[in-house]
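Bumping with the actual sequence this time:
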Amino acid sequence: MNYIKYLVENIHSVIVATINADGHPQTRVINMMMWDEKGLYFLTAKGKAFYTQLMEQKYVALSATKDKTSVSLRGKIQNIGTEKLDEIFKINSYMQQIYPYDTRSVLEVFRLYEATGEYFDISDPAHVMRDSILIGTPKIAESGYFVGNKCVGCKRCYSVCPQKCIDISGKPAVIDQNRCLHCGRCVEICPNHAIEKRG
């Protein structure tokens, strides 16, 4: 949950994507208001097209970046009405000026409760860092590049890897998933087609 805390407290404003009425992706900037062990919370007014899309689709994708770090998530949402609304306004006091007094009655809270995603950090370009994020208990699809048993230990994959994140001390070689850029150069050069992309 450290990445979710970072998203709310350090980045706060994120790009959220849904599908609009004509079937195309639509994005907007939404503030992530709070988080707890049940998920990530944001809100919107009931009169907005965004609200309608959330109610119909019950799914979002979001991305945010700051200081060469990024957080991306995709998953299921639920409308929890006015639950957490007072707490959100207390934590995010600027909201009291946007929706003063009883005007907050047009707002409803949504919780991202089951999601997968990743944290990506390129603040040290020679040693990037990638990590998975989970909210709830979603089904996880393995993704990235993996070296199989056809590996003959030729070390060509390591020679073209921009991050040098492949352990070639044994067979098969092992790709460090937390540092891999997913560029695919290792796949292109492998003479035995021992490397596969998953996800």
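The tokens above came from a reply further down the thread. DSSP finds six helices and twelve strands in the chain.
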